[in-house]
Amino acid sequence: MLSWLAVCCSGLLHINAAYKGPRWQFYLFKPLTILLMMLIALVGGEANVYTYLILVGLLFSLFGDVFLMLPKDRFIPGLLSFLIAHILYSVAFWQQFDGPMIWWLPSLIGAASVIVFLLLLPNLGPLLIPVGIYIAVIAQMAWGAGEFWMNAHSQTAAYAFGGALLFMVSDTVLAFERFKGPFRASVLLVMSTYFCAQGLITLSVMP
Q1: Is residue 26 within 8 Å of residue 14, measured between CB atoms?
Q2: Is residue 116 a contact partner of residue 172, using CB atoms and an 8 Å limit?
Q3: Does this model's pTM top 0.90?
Q4: N or C: which end of the chain has fewer CB within 10 A?
Q5: Positive or negative CA dihedral for 166, 41, 84, 28?
Q6: In Å, how far are 50, 118, 133, 135, 136 from 129, measured between CA atoms?
Q7: What is the largest CA-CA distance in the chain?
Q8: Where is the signal peptide (predicted)?
Q9: Looking at the 3D structure of the chain, how many domains does it have?
Q10: How far is it, in rounded angstroms, from Cα 130 to Cα 205?
């Protein structure tokens, strides 16, 4: 419980610093929040392939966080880091799936992803292909987590699916902020859903 309290405090300090400063607090607490989740998964998670995939996914998320918050923006390396994280999460979720496919689920997720892509399309420019690939990867990650939950109906699967859906929300808001223009509540929306997504995915490794 105290470890999760530390995660919450760290995340809130980062969000607060994004609006009010100081800058050192902004740079420190974003990666620290993910690092704390990695430690929770490492200490409390089961020693299996699923946990290891989630841990490495968190590590690449940490790399992505650092790239995206650097004063000199490293958007492409950040995008690539999160792309790898989503692929690792996807492998973890699909490995847990064992049962009949629920075909309406990818239809809903795919339709939502296409709508987001079309709304962003006029502003993507040379990033059209990388962003399109990223949207496709995160959509199939959510699909994998959803199939896992629809078949297992376990708490672990519920955490995984909830985390994947929140990740989609976070990345969608981030994409609109970057390509359509910033708005005051964007940091709060992006980071609160992002930290909750990573927290739920971390919880999915707990026995």
Answers
A1: yes
A2: yes
A3: yes
A4: N
A5: positive
A6: 30, 13, 6, 10, 11
A7: 51
A8: none
A9: 1
A10: 30
Q: Are 29 and 13 in contact (CB under 8 A)?
A: yes
In the structure encoding, which two tokens stand for residue 203, read together? 């919880």
Provide the CB-side half-sphere exposure for 97 (13 A, CA): 21
Where do we find the tokens 């760290």?
A: 10
Give the whole-angstrom CA distance, residue 66 versus residue 74: 9
Per-residue pLDDT of the chain (207 residues; tens, 9 = 90+): 778 999 999 999 999 999 998 989 999 999 999 999 999 999 998 889 999 999 999 999 999 999 988 877 688 899 999 999 999 999 999 999 887 888 899 999 999 999 999 999 999 999 999 999 999 999 999 999 999 999 988 999 999 999 999 999 999 999 999 999 888 888 999 999 999 999 999 999 998
Q: What is the DSSP string of 142-180?
A: HHHHHHHHHHH--HHHHHHHHHHHHHHHHHHHHHHHHHH
Enclosing domain of residue 102: 2-203
